[in-house]
Backbone:
């Protein structure tokens, strides 16, 4: 472990710590939901450890509980995880010069929160050790929180009153990622178009409304960037 | 529920999660997206986050509901985030407004 890895790890952990609060209720809710779907405690933690993806876990639970065909369950998980292909492509340059087992681990641990918080500084640094530390420390912390509070939810299912609305903390966490991004007008347009499209298309099956919303948002941002560029040319 | 089938399901969902995540990190320098696509994809995180958040704030019971407790809480989060830099405050303000409206006013 080099010095710059340790420095990166400390800085990444500090940058991510406040936002990681939002993971706690999400992990709890997911733990409770898996038990409600009829899994045993061991099966629930098995899913938590193998999948490690809140949206995919929560999104496929109703299908598994309803006895849906396997292909539909896997397709739904893929649709929910499509955004990670995009995140993976954007973050990949940060792992240049890192051996493949560590890249495999980095890939497995990729989450919305760490991506949102860390991507800017990750792509600006030219020290591969610092980058790896800056990415892995908050990612490992995310993993730990996810398993610990998932377990708490699995074991305490039924003890947390529903009227506390704790699941809303996950929405707050996502908003805290989004707000600082909306600095330029094209990003604004992308967010607004993506969000409204997801609302309008929410009735589509297989959560395709989410995927369509993302695609529409990207297209709108790209068009807005072109318009802005042409205005400046004049 | 057949237990072996369930574990198989978990493994496949796991592959459907790690696969997309590792898709560009694992191949490293060998696979690159074309420049235009990469520029367009810069808008993906904001679009994805908004697509996750806005239905949570605007939709209640399957219909668009512009006046609801979650939207009010969301606006409080935005206001607090833009005004102060304290990272814990948005959670306190958002949950405070939500619980006040839900419990105090039955919204």
Residues:
């Amino acid at each position: 472990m080099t010095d710059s890895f340790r420095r990166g790890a400390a800085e990444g952990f500090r940058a991510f710590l406040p936002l990681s609060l939002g993971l706690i209720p999400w992990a709890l809710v997911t733990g409770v939901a898996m038990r409600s779907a009829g899994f045993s405690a061991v099966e629930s933690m098995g899913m938590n450890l193998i999948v490690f993806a809140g949206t995919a876990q929560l999104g496929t639970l109703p299908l598994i509980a309803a006895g849906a065909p396997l292909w539909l369950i896997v397709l739904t998980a893929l649709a929910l995880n499509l955004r990670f292909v995009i995140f993976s492509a954007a973050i990949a340059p940060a792992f240049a010069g890192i051996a493949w087992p560590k890249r495999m681990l980095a890939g497995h641990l990729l989450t919305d929160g760490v991506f949102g918080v860390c991507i800017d500084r990750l792509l600006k640094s030219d020290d591969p050790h610092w980058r790896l530390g800056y990415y892995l420390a908050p990612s490992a912390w995310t993993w730990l929180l996810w398993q610990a509070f998932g377990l708490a939810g699995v074991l305490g299912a039924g003890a947390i009153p529903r009227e506390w609305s704790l699941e809303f903390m996950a929405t707050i966490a996502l908003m805290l990622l989004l707000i600082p991004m909306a600095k330029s007008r094209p990003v604004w347009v992308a967010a607004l178009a993506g969000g409204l499209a997801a609302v309008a298309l929410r009735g589509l099956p297989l959560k395709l409304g989410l995927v369509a919303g993302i695609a529409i948002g990207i297209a709108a941002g790209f068009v807005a960037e072109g318009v802005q560029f042409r205005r400046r040319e004049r | 529920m057949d237990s072996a089938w369930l574990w198989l399901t978990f493994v496949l969902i796991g592959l459907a999660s790690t696969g997309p995540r590792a898709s560009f990190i694992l191949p490293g320098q060998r696979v690159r997206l074309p420049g235009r696509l990469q520029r367009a994809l810069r808008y993906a995180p904001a679009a994805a986050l908004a697509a996750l958040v806005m239905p949570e704030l605007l939709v209640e019971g399957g219909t668009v509901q512009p006046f609801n407790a979650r939207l009010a809480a969301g606006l409080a989060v935005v206001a607090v985030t833009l005004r102060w830099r304290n990272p814990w405050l948005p959670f306190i303000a958002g949950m405070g407004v939500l619980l006040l409206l839900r419990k105090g006013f039955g919204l």
Summary: Chain A touches chain B through 89 residues (CB under 8 Å).
